[in-house]
Known about the structure:
With 85 residues, the chain is mostly helical. The chain has a domain at 6-53. It has helices at 6-22, 27-54, 73-82; strands spanning 56-60, 66-70. A two-stranded antiparallel sheet has the order 1-2. The chain starts with 5 loop residues before the first helix and ends with a helix. The mean pLDDT is 81.
Amino acid sequence: MAGVKFEQAMARLEVIVGELEKGDLPLDESLKIFEEGIRLSKNCLKVLEEAEKKVEVLVQDKNGKKQLRAFTSEDIDQRDSSMEP
């Protein structure tokens, strides 16, 4: 499971959700793919958390000097508010 790429895991998760939503599978098969889905979702969450730790943004301080700092949710809020008409 560790070798599964994020995109592949997400695609498989979509298939699993579709199969479970149909409700056509026997209980044991539903449980089996549900467990697979849980493993895949945990893997995806881990990949996303690792990516979040790596993301940095280049910002300019009050003196015009550029500095690197960790990306935060505040950066998203500031970007969203600056885009409002």
